[in-house]
Specification:
GO terms for molecular function: double-stranded DNA 3'-5' DNA exonuclease activity. Belongs to the DNA repair enzymes AP/ExoA family. It holds the Pfam family Exo_endo_phos. The structure is a single chain. By secondary structure, this protein is of the alpha+beta class. Helices cover 26% and strands 27% of the residues.
Amino acid sequence: MRIAIYNVNGVNGRLPVLLEWLGATSPDVVCLQELKAPQEKFPLKALEEAGYGAIWHGQKSWNGVAILARGCTPVETRRGLPDDPDPAQSRYLEAAVNGVLVGCLYLPNGNPRPGPKFDYKLRWIAAFEALAADLLPLDQPVVLAGDYNIIPTERDVYKPERWTEDALFVPDVRAAIERLTGAGWLDALRHLHPDEQVFTFWDYFRNAFARDAGLRIDHLLLNAAAAKRLKAAGVDRSARALPKTSDHAPVWIALK
């Protein structure tokens, strides 16, 4: 079972890229972030023609998350976080697909900091951690997947000294990943590639992708039941090289 995450940075504007990637890789489940489309503008028909059922949580111009499943429609189990600090923002969606519970998230960026955007990020993280604590001990496989907007370690960023004051990299944000993994969630990509510098995002500016000046901010965290089935993980860098593509690349895991 191949589960992927992809911050598409506008699902309608990047639809040709998304469809090309789906056709080339055929993931079983896909978590999309940053749809930037209201509920009624989600391109369901095009995705169904590509062989995918979908549920989505849209928002005009900003945010938005969706879960796609090849050959079926995900069974929605949750829309929004319990105790969400701003329910008007579409940032969390959860569904069951073929025996796996998948949570799709788009965590707030938090810049500029200090300020209200960073305060909101910390409140959202707290609400997310509370939900993660409830999901962690489940007997069924659980995957919390998406754009976390958190750079976990210095190995996960090109020139970390340039990011010390950024809301993606400050200690109180990085500590959230440490708490999650310390509690028992497995960082799938890092677990299978412990010594590699692996990036999932490259800015459009300063020729960042060609220079491989990137960040790792897109993560798939697995509970124990899912971790036992983990057999592969990677980044589809080729999608980042396509014309009119997102600034993120898809990240995927394979479960037995």
